[in-house]
């Protein structure tokens, strides 16, 4: 680019010199003889242009001017009628001097001339040499500075990455509460560090949940196992009568049932957490299911002297549900009401239709009791695993604290959630909403009632 710019400047200078010759000849009289013109040009150019490498010849071969510097190198000059009309640029060496030259024909007063003009390249070569040296030095300095800057910038950029990698390698299952260093650079590394810390928080929460679940499960199983061992050891210590052995067997049976229910619940939760517990949704007539569940619970409530009733505002209300799973949800809610409602109080299982638009309605299923109630601070805890906030009033077992967890999971798989309304001493109301099936999806006939024996049985709390 620099060479091209210098060439343009030199070519313009040479053209300017040719135009200067043209103007000089044009200023002379038209009838002037070649000798007179030669004398005039010589008188003018020897003083001011003698060192500018000039030669001028007319169309008849008459030399009008010859610079002594160029005459020895170019003793002949092409006639104007033979010269290129656009001019010819070239470079030659004379007396160890590099010269840039131009040969171009001109026409003045009807006579054609060939003008050869030139200028030395010494100054240009010196400028280019100095420029090359300076460019080399600047390039070397620029490379050195950019390398140093790149090194320090890369060190600064990679230091947080090395710190994050070192801290990530240090974190294991023994110190999951550790976190990666927080960066305040507001760039992608800061976003990465925050994202990894959030991931570590989720991993820690999951790991703590597993550890807590395992510890609680071991504790829950330890009590009935210890009771079984104690009962059998006492029974075998001395000879006993038949009545004593019978009572011991009954207590062992109760502990075995408690262990079986707990193990079933733990397996169900494990399958739910692993995502392998699949519910098979199908059209279910909710009033039929409610009547079936109510008939199964009526006797138990009667034995506990609890007034139990169920309410249906329609004989036909179709929902999409897993029959056995949803029945288990109802059993869990009713069992909780049965356990924590004193004798003489009431429990109501109800289904009501709610209109939620011109072409959409939902079924609200609720279990309401007038029992002990739940305080405000405990309402958020009852859906946590192994949470028990009161001693049951009925039944042989205290429960495992997993029933409502399973019930909430079943509700979520049906696209709903269990809502709680309760106050200490004023009873509780558990409810959930399920969308009704559109008319074109309702079956034409009632499906046969499925029994627990025909399907996988999900134990209640």
What is the share of helical residues? 40-55%
Would you identify the regions where 5 or more consecutive residues have pLDDT less than 50? Answer: 447-461
Tally of domains:
3
> What is the element string, with H for helices and E for strands?
HHEEHEEEHHHEHEEHEEHHEE
Written overview of the protein:
This protein has 461 residues and is of the alpha+beta class. It folds into 3 domains: 119 residues, PAS domain (Beta-Lactamase, 2-Layer Sandwich), CATH 3.30.450.20; 87 residues, Signal transduction histidine kinase, dimerisation/phosphotransfer (DHp) domain (Helix Hairpins); 160 residues, Heat Shock Protein 90. The chain is 49% helix and 18% strand. It has 10 helices and 12 strands. Strands 2-1-5-4-3 form a 5-stranded antiparallel β-sheet. A hairpin with a 5-residue loop joins strand 9 and strand 10. It is rod-shaped, with a radius of gyration of 53 Å. 24% of the residues are buried.
Keywords for this structure?
461 residues, alpha+beta, Beta-Lactamase, Helix Hairpins, Heat Shock Protein 90, 3 domains, 5-stranded antiparallel sheet, 10 helices, 12 strands, disordered C terminus
Write the layout of secondary structure elements.
Elements: H1 2-27, H2 34-48, E1 55-58, E2 63-66, H3 68-71, E3 88-94, E4 97-108, E5 111-120, H4 122-170, H5 188-237, H6 242-274, E6 282-285, H7 286-303, E7 307-312, E8 318-321, H8 323-339, E9 346-355, E10 361-369, H9 376-379, H10 403-413, E11 419-422, E12 428-435
Parallel strand pairs: 7-9
Antiparallel strand pairs: 1-2, 1-5, 3-4, 4-5, 6-8, 9-10, 10-12, 11-12
Helix pairs in contact: 5-6, 6-10, 7-8, 8-10
């Amino acid at each position: 680019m620099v060479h091209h710019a210098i060439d343009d400047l030199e070519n313009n200078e040479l053209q300017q010199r040719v135009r200067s010759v043209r103007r000089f000849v044009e200023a002379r009289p038209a009838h002037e003889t070649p000798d007179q013109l030669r004398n005039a040009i010589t008188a003018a150019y020897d003083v001011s242009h003698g060192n500018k490498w000039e030669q001028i010849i007319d169309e008849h071969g008459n030399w009008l001017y010859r610079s002594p510097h160029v005459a020895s190198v170019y003793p002949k000059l092409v006639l104007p009628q033979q010269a290129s009309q656009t001019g010819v640029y070239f470079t030659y060496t004379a007396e160890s001097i590099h010269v840039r030259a131009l040969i171009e024909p001109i026409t003045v007063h009807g006579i054609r001339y060939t003008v050869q003009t030139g200028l030395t390249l010494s100054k240009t070569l010196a400028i280019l040499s100095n420029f090359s040296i300076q460019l080399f030095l600047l390039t070397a300095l620029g490379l050195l500075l950019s390398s140093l800057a790149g090194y320090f910038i890369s060190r600064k950029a990679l230091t947080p990455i090395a710190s994050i990698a070192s801290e990530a390698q240090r974190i294991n299952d023994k110190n999951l509460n550790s976190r990666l260093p927080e960066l305040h650079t507001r760039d992608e590394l800061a976003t990465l560090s925050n994202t990894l810390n959030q991931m570590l928080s989720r991993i820690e929460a999951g790991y703590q949940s597993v550890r807590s679940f395992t510890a609680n499960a071991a504790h829950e199983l330890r009590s009935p196992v210890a009771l079984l061992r104690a009962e059998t050891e006492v029974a075998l210590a001395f000879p006993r009568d038949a009545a004593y052995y019978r009572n011991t067997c009954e207590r062992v049976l109760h502990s075995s049932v408690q262990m079986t229910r707990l193990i079933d619940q733990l397996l169900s939760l494990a399958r739910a957490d692993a995502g392998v517990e699949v519910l098979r949704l199908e059209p279910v007539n909710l009033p039929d299911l409610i009547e079936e569940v109510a008939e199964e619970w009526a006797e138990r409530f009667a034995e506990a002297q609890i007034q139990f009733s169920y309410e249906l505002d329609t004989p036909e209300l179709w929902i999409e549900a897993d029959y056995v799973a949803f029945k288990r949800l109802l059993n869990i809610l009713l069992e909780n009401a049965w356990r924590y409602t004193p004798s003489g109080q009431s429990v109501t299982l109800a289904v009501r239709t709610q209109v939620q638009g011109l072409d959409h309605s939902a079924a609200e299923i609720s279990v309401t009791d007038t029992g002990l109630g739940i305080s405000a601070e405990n309402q958020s805890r009852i859906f946590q695993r192994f949470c028990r906030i009161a001693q049951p009033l009925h039944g042989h077992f205290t429960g495992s604290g997993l029933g409502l967890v399973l019930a909430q999971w079943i509700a979520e798989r049906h696209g709903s959630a269990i809502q709680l309304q309760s106050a200490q001493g004023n009873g509780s109301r558990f409810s959930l909403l399920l969308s009704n099936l559109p008319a074109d999806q309702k079956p034409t006939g009632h499906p046969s009632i499925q029994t627990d024996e025909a399907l996988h049985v999900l134990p209640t709390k």
